[in-house]
Amino acid sequence: MEMRKTIRVKTEAWCERVRLRGGTNLAVAFCDGCGKAVRFVTPEMAAGMLHANTREVYRGIEVGDLHYLEVDKIALLVCVNSLEEKLANRANADRNP
Ligand SMILES: [Zn+2]
Given a cut of 50, is residue 20 above it in pLDDT? Predict the structure, then answer.
């Protein structure tokens, strides 16, 4: 019980730090999908980038379009690289329906 509380607080503090930094340089971590260190954002931020809601973000993760990183097993972050790729693919699809 005590352990769980500590983990939650740690994650909230981490997400807060990400939010506070804002804009460009967020969390940088190694992404298995990209095979290199990339920036990660919260699902809420990812939804904002896609101009969609978080449900679309989670669906993208499920189908493998978006890479993600688990934080303390209870929160996850989305790889900005895969987000930008998804955005580019969507733009192409719009141009060539
Ligand atoms: Zn990635």
Answer: no
